[in-house]
Amino acid sequence: MAISKPYDVVILGASGFTGKYVIREALKFLNVPNSPLKSLALAGRSTSRLAEALKWASAPNPPPYVPLLAADTTDFNSLTRLAAQSRIILNCVGPFRLYGEPVVKACVELGCDYLDICGEPEFMEKMEAVYHNMAVENGSLIISACGFDSIPAELGLLFHAKQWTDPCVPNQVEAYLSLESDKKIVGNYGTYESLILGVANADKLSELRKSRPRRARPTIPDSTVVRRTFSTLTQNPEGVRGVSESDEKAIERRNFWSSVKPAHFGVKLGSKSILGLLPCIILGIFLALLCRSSLGRWLLLKFPSLFSAGWFKKEGPSEDQVESASFKMWFIGRGFSDGAAVAAGKKTDTQVVTRVTGPEIGYITTPITLVQCALVVLDQRNNLPKGGVYTPGIVFGPTDLQSRLQENGISFDFVSRKTSLHS
């Protein structure tokens, strides 16, 4: 019998810039009809700052009673206390390469489920290498990249793949991300810091991959998280079995994955003009020039606005900037109207276009996706893997996460299909 815990969800790092938006999103589902979220706690280094964040997130209503728990990623005992009291920890403390592993370790040791908003490949792959087997044994489900960094791309690709009904077969899918706003787009400093550290330590990711046993190679080579999802699917063609799923749910899982047709996949940043990409180009040049030296990294971190042409600021975006921003992700797939054309070496003749749209990516979409992932885990835990370190796609693909996101402002749309197209 599962041990009852006082909190369904604990939000760690709740007083941070992203954390307070996660609080605001979680409060929408706390103790409301048909929601599995019955108890919530906030955790961070300062309970006074947590109280301020709760007040902000609750406005204009008075803040509800939510326990405020002192915890620090440098104090492992405080993390084990959190994991012992919670069914799920939502980790918003980044950069994850600096602060994430102790939280994962505590959750794995105590059998607590863990979700985060990480987009750092080295951290995610290291957690899989170090903790997967123990997580399976202890019944701890560890899922990184539950924010914008993966959910729209992964679920968007799965949605797109299902539009290629037999006998059609996709060959390549390109996703084009467009960030839109009436005001200047400004990113979070934590994301910027993670990007710099990731580029600076790219050799460590390469070393980690070389040190691990070779996994089954999927047909999707380009996007890191998606590649890991399809690598797991290559090893488990029917998906990963739920810990105590019913026969009906097992059939649904098998049917879902049998309908997904993999294809080469990549994500690119799109813009209406080259000027729209200028900040990205400028940042890329400075990252290449400065990331390898400690002085260069210090300069990049000290003056984020200068080196990113205003894209990133230490104080983050204003409320108006957050509310005015949105994104569109176009999925353009090319393939064959008949699978027999693949073996015959013919050119692609079919194009399918789908789209994922939603609000601002860092502080509105990310909290929506993270909280909805948590609600799925709370509501459907028996249908999910017993434990292990997984990507969002392999766990949430067969669930109702897409429809939940659709109901909360993130749309998945079929746009068009064309035949007799030649590449």
List keywords for this structure.
423 residues, 7-stranded parallel beta sheet, 19% strand, 5-stranded mixed beta sheet, 19 helices, alpha/beta
Structure, described:
With 423 residues, this protein is α/β, with parallel strands linked by helices. Helices cover 45% and strands 19% of the residues. The protein is built from 19 helices and 12 strands. It has a 7-stranded parallel β-sheet, with helices on both faces. A 5-stranded mixed β-sheet has the order 8-7-9-10-12. It is globular, with a radius of gyration of 21 Å. The mean pLDDT is 89.
Nutshell version of this structure?
The protein is an alpha/beta fold.
Mean pLDDT: 89
Instruction: Point out poorly predicted stretches.
Output: none
What's the total count of β strands? Answer: 12
Q: Helix- and strand-based class?
A: alpha/beta
Strand order of the largest sheet: 3-2-1-4-5-6-11
Portion of residues in helices?
Answer: 40-55%
Helix run count: 19
The portion of residues forming beta strands comes to 15-25%
The major pleated sheet works out as: 7 strands, parallel
Q: Compute the CA-based radius of gyration.
A: 21 Å
